[in-house]
Amino acid sequence: SLKMASDSPESLMTLCTDYCLRNLEGTLCYLLDNETLRLHPDIFLPSEICDKLVNEYVELVKTDSIFEPHESFFTLFSDPRSTRLARIHLREQIVQDQDLEAIRKQDLVELYLTNCEKLTAKSLQTLVSFSHTLISLSLFGCCNIFYEEENPGGCEDDCLVNPTRQVLVKDFTFEGFSRLRFLNLGRLIEGVNVETLLRPLASLAALDLSGIQLNDVGFLTQWKDSLVSLVLYNMDLSEEHIQVIAQLRKLRHLDISRDHLSSYYKFKLTRRVLNLFVENLVNLTSLDISGHTMLENCTIPSMEEKMGQTSIEPAKSSIVPFRGLKRPLQFLGLFETSLCRLTHIPAYKVSGDKNEEQVLNAIEAYTEHRPEITSRAINLLFDIARIERCSQLLRALQLVITALKCHKDDKNIQVTGSAALFYLTNSEYRMEQSVKLRHQVIQVVLNGMESYQEVTVQRNCCLTLCNFSIPEELEFQYRRVNELLLNILNQSRQDESIQRIAVHLCNALVCQVDNDHKEAVGKMGFVMTMLKLIQKKLADKTCDQVMEFSWSALWNITDETPDNCEMFLNYSGMKLFLECLKEFPEKQELHRNMLGLLGNVAEVKELRPQLMTSQFISVFSNLLESKADGIEVSYNACGVLSHIMFDGPEAWGICEPHREEVVKRMWAAIQSWDINSRRNINYRSFEPILRLLPQGISPVSQHWATWALYNLVSVYPDKYCPLLIKEGGIPLLKDMIKMASARQETKEMAR
């Protein structure tokens, strides 16, 4: 079913929401005074649509670098008569006090504020506006929401002041929040009295106090008849805490897990504590004790442990206290504990580090609120993908994508996640991935490259892009990916390996794409960037892959693109060509790439006069005799000269060498080539060659063009016969056979 889910297209609702958000002015809104967004007066939207608009907006701002946030977006939802909100999830820096203030008239049922560090105590007052309807509230990681600006009258002695001269609010409580059942206060700032804050709540069902240190949790017993879920992640526990928890008999989900790296921790789990939970919390379906050290042995002897078929029946449990369970748990968190490696664990889902299933369960369970744990779980997945084979590929990919999106600014997750993606997208897994999923991978990879100038992330991201078919699979993000790669290549200090991969990608991106793409990339500074790289390599006297790929990329990007050819000449490309030729006389690949590029330049009539110097013509003439890379260097040199000859004797503005002498050398070169040569060249169009057929001014150019066509259609008939017919080559050849000026051998070949 996961396979099907990832393959199915987006719903119409999702597509429309996305379109409206990207085109607010053209759809739901108009601009007032050229700056404020206003809803059209005849628009009325129910909460199903408004919730999705707000939640998707937050997602887009967070994960799509091209999407521009709007100052006045939340004001569109200020009037419940035209727009209704019920359940919204806001994250991080996107939300400010005035945004919540704008929607205060809405009857919100569910409000999740996750890591919204810009919210201050002004927003606490706004929350009161929702008190009569709110059922679910999360303030996870909103570390400034209990701070207000310091009052001008100075500070009382007993108030805490944080570095920005803000004062901790002490008098706020959840008084009047009569319907509130689900509350997450994770990572609440120190100094707030949790007991006083919560006392007014009549019947809490779920409470999350992650990362808060409370020595006394006795007040929790006031909800012993209603509390079904309690999360105390990273709270320093003691015997008193355990006694209180044991009284909360309605609990179905209990999480007392911890990050074992975070701090010294006195409390150790014992057999007695687990027995206490099993005996008293009879409704328990989910328990998380990840990161805990077991003080004594809770397991059965290892001989017995290895026996029999793996079972989740409590009676057979390898962890003795769990033999008292009435039925297997739905979830048991054992990540970074020794217990996860046991054979018989009485739970349907276990988080741990023993195998792929446990690791994926861990990533799934902890991604949203515990990036510090998630990055270690992804690291384990990376090892599995690298060394073994992933059996739940789609799930693994989906989870890593979600983690990378959710924690765009977390360096550890970006490093481990981008490394895991490289292994999860390589060719052996290719068949199992839908287009939609591969698009998502590309999006998060590009996000990573944008947010992180860090070498490891950049390298991982570039390597991952190499797992895709280029340019086809990157077409939908063409501009963006080119901009990012050029950005990498333009940095003054460069990592050799990243430089090599980035140049390779740039080359692949401009190979076999439409001319408008090439022009766009040219305008981004592509030609200049490649020439700078060549310049650097020349200065170091090295001819490596970067040097060869850079020339190859220039060859590709100038193909039938006059603007880019002109840029090459304007940025002293010819000077670099001569210097490379002189510095690396033996490098055949390099010569081929450079001459291929000059062939493209020579096809542009307006630029040919710039090639008409004694120095250049001598160099091209001498290369006619080159045996480098089979016939390629000689063939390309002859091509360049054929276009120059085609301009006629009056265009020959130099005394040395003589035109006739060069023509003679061209005939000799063409006659020396093997007509059945296999080729290192790829034509998308014959147009520049066909141009040389219907003319009598330069028979040698005509002969070169005919030889080129004859060789290509005879060696690669399936590819080039259709192209020759499609581009009208047949009538041109027929006409040429009748021409008096054409040489006999040219006519023979044409026939």
From TrEMBL:
<dbReference type="Pfam" id="PF25013">
    <property type="entry name" value="LRR_Zer-1"/>
</dbReference>
<protein>
    <recommendedName>
        <fullName>Protein zer-1 homolog</fullName>
    </recommendedName>
</protein>
<dbReference type="InterPro" id="IPR051341">
    <property type="entry name" value="Zyg-11_UBL_adapter"/>
</dbReference>
<dbReference type="InterPro" id="IPR016024">
    <property type="entry name" value="ARM-type_fold"/>
</dbReference>
<feature type="domain" description="Zer-1-like leucine-rich repeats region">
    <location>
        <begin position="196"/>
        <end position="337"/>
    </location>
</feature>
<dbReference type="InterPro" id="IPR000225">
    <property type="entry name" value="Armadillo"/>
</dbReference>
<dbReference type="InterPro" id="IPR055142">
    <property type="entry name" value="ZER1-like_C"/>
</dbReference>
<comment type="similarity">
    <text>Belongs to the zyg-11 family.</text>
</comment>
<keyword id="KW-0677">Repeat</keyword>
<comment type="subunit">
    <text>Interacts with the ELOC-ELOB/Elongin BC complex. Part of an E3 ubiquitin ligase complex including ZER1, CUL2 and Elongin BC.</text>
</comment>
<keyword id="KW-0833">Ubl conjugation pathway</keyword>
<keyword id="KW-0433">Leucine-rich repeat</keyword>
<dbReference type="InterPro" id="IPR056845">
    <property type="entry name" value="LRR_Zer-1"/>
</dbReference>
<dbReference type="Pfam" id="PF22964">
    <property type="entry name" value="ZER1-like_2nd"/>
</dbReference>
<dbReference type="InterPro" id="IPR011989">
    <property type="entry name" value="ARM-like"/>
</dbReference>
<dbReference type="GO" id="GO:0031462">
    <property type="term" value="C:Cul2-RING ubiquitin ligase complex"/>
</dbReference>
<dbReference type="InterPro" id="IPR032675">
    <property type="entry name" value="LRR_dom_sf"/>
</dbReference>
<keyword id="KW-0007">Acetylation</keyword>
<feature type="domain" description="Protein zer-1 homolog-like C-terminal">
    <location>
        <begin position="404"/>
        <end position="750"/>
    </location>
</feature>
